[in-house]
Amino acid sequence: TELIEFRESRKVYWLPISIGYENFDSIPFKFSLSNFIRKLRHGYGMVKVSFHEPYTYSDFFQRRSFNAKFLRNHLYHDIVFKAPVMATNLVAFLLLTYFKDVGGKVAEIAEKANELQKNFCTIEFAFEGDAIDVVNYALKTFHGKISIDKEALIKANEDAYEEFLSLAKVLLYHHALKAAIVSYLALPNVDYNKVDYYKMIDHAADVVDNLKIPFKGCSTKDDQLIDAFDNLAINGLLERPITIYTENEQRAQRMAKYLDVDEDDDYEDRSYNDDESDSDEEEEFDPNNQVIINIDKQNEINVLKDMILLIQGSDETACDDEDEK
């Protein structure tokens, strides 16, 4: 009651704040902004603090009840997806994904960095300059944490994996929905020639729920997964079916298929139970739902599949850090 009266007499605001920093040192979770600023002298490198659009208490007050979960989701989304990306965030992400196995030369890493900047125009990249200069700057920060072989191929050291992961996480979530979709291809016994669009989307939704991947509250999870699939199609990794049906249309098709029997059959044998679609028996593959996989893009598909493991690892690391506190 006191909170309701306070709301009616004053405006209460929540201001999402994202902090990007260059160095490996992890920032204690419960520091206030003032404490964090005092800590900067201990070597976090260049820091970028971004203040986002504020929310008011009334935005989340429904039927005389405060929706704290809705507010938390919005704040979390803004802090995660609008966080500034430093040069070290970008290069750490590339070293753990596209150049994880064989490494990459400076020019190759710079080319991929330039491509990511163009593809993610909504991200705040907190650095300027030529891509090669940006990569070289980040690599100097990683001194002692990377290895360079005789062919000038650069890789992240295994003993610095968690440190690189802490920096890469800011970009992992921007790939999370696409990675969740592609992770369907990593399931056992998946036939690349019989990939079902609807099963792929359903599996991605389960991955998003299990890993608690944040998505913006103003649109549904399914809508954002469909958008992510379309983005994969635009980039040439997948090709979606020509016709996409709603859930009700799919159900009607299953009913029609089941009822399409000879007239001589007894009517009792034609009773339809929609639950049969969830039976253990393998469903007949419908070629109208087929997703075409571009084998020429297999390397990029594999990178996205591996990102799910990185996201899972970054969440486990965060939980371990909180448990220690």
Overall pLDDT metric: 78
Amount of helix: 40-55%
Structural class: mainly alpha
Instruction: Determine Rg (CA atoms, Å).
Output: 24 Å
Would you report the number of β strands?
10
Low-confidence stretches: 26-30, 261-281, 317-325
Would you list the SSEs in sequence order as H and E? Answer: HEEHEEEEHHHHEEHHHHEHEH
Question: What's the shape?
Answer: flat
Cα separation of the termini? 34 Å
Number of helices: 12
Largest sheet: 2 strands, antiparallel
- Biggest β-sheet: strands ordered side by side in the sheet: 1-4
> How big a fraction of the residues is strand?
5-15%
Brief characterization of the structure:
With 325 residues, this protein is mainly α. Helix content is 47%, strand content 9%.
Describe this structure in words.
The protein has 325 residues and is mostly helical. It is 47% helix and 9% strand. It is built from twelve helices and ten strands. Strands 1-4 form a two-stranded antiparallel ribbon. Helix 5 crosses helix 6, helix 8 packs across helix 9 and helix 8 crosses helix 12. It starts with a helix and ends with a helix. The C terminus is likely disordered.
